């Protein structure tokens, strides 16, 4: 990538402008045209104010939260292709995930940003994130979240890197592999659920006794329960 003069806030000069951001903002417009307004941030979701991270929906953070590297990647694309093609690149990439998944990934990006803010990680060091930074971020989450939540955070950061053309250093290094194992063993009790009793044929029979099988709605309920049961059961 080309070297640009860097401003005081670690943003390459001239990159954080409306022409660049408007492409990303257009890419996240909902297909139905409906506009959703983000909620005011809660106390536990606040971040250091930055032009790189506007207040947007969680599902929009993976594209609208930028870095000097991501903006340079976009600028390089614009040097080679017209705006309409660059817009399609971001539009198609953002549509590769459904909105709920993007929201979950946005939650992980928020936690990563809070960690970087707390420890004064410079903007250029946040993308591409080094394996050491990712390891520190995961280790910091130990005993506070489940391993599945941490894995979702990492998947979100991986996607965020991908849509910004950045290399991903969160592969299975020895350090990260052991941190992931440790996270699973340090899952807080509040994140664990006790096993529930299994659904059995006897339970289905009890359900049938409580329904009126001459009623079309109750018939539909029992049919749905049976289909779900026999589709999931395993012969032993």
In which range does the helix fraction lie?
40-55%
The amount of beta strand, in percent, is under 5%
- What's the gyration radius in Å? 23 Å
Q: Describe the largest sheet.
A: none
Number of strands: 0
Mean pLDDT: 85
Which consecutive residue ranges, at least 5 long each, have pLDDT under 50? Answer: 1-18
SSE run: HHHHHHHHHHH
| N-to-C CA distance | 59 Å
Give the overall silhouette. globular
> Which structural class should the secondary elements be placed in?
mainly alpha
Total DSSP helices: 11
How would you describe this structure to a colleague?
By secondary structure, this protein is mainly alpha-helical. Helices cover about 55% and strands about 0% of the residues. It has 11 helices and no strands. The chain has helices spanning about 20-25, 60-65, 70-80, 85-95, 100-120, 125, 130-140, 145-165, 175-185, 200-210, 215-230. Helix 7 (about 130-140) runs parallel beside helix 9 (about 175-185). The longest helix is centred in the middle third of the chain and has 20 residues, at about 100-120. Residues about 1-20 have low confidence and may be disordered.
What features would you highlight for this structure?
single chain; 236 residues; mainly alpha; 54% helix; globular
Summarize the structure.
The chain is mostly helical and 236 residues long. It contains eleven helices and no strands.
């Amino acid at each position: 990538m080309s070297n640009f003069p860097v401003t005081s806030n670690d943003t390459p000069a001239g990159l954080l402008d409306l022409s660049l951001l408007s492409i990303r903002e257009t890419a996240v417009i909902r297909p139905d045209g409906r506009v959703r307004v983000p909620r005011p941030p809660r106390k536990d979701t606040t971040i250091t104010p930055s032009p790189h991270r506007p207040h947007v929906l969680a599902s929009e953070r993976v594209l609208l939260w930028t870095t000097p590297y991501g903006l340079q990647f976009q600028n390089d694309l614009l040097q080679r292709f017209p705006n309409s093609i660059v817009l399609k690149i971001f539009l198609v990439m953002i549509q590769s995930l459904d909105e709920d998944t993007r929201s979950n990934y946005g939650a992980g990006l928020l936690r990563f940003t809070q960690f970087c803010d707390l420890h004064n990680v410079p903007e250029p060091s946040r993308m591409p994130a080094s394996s050491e930074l990712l390891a520190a971020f995961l280790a910091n989450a130990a005993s506070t979240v489940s391993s599945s939540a941490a894995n979702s955070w990492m998947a979100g950061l991986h996607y965020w890197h991908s849509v910004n053309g950045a290399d991903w250093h969160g592969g299975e290094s020895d350090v990260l592999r052991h941190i992931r194992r440790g996270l699973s063993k340090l899952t807080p009790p509040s994140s664990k659920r006790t096993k529930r009793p299994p659904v059995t044929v006897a339970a289905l029979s009890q359900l049938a006794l409580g329904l009126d099988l001459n009623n079309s709605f109750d018939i539909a309920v029992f049919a749905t329960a049976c289909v779900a049961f026999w589709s999931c059961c395993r012969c032993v």
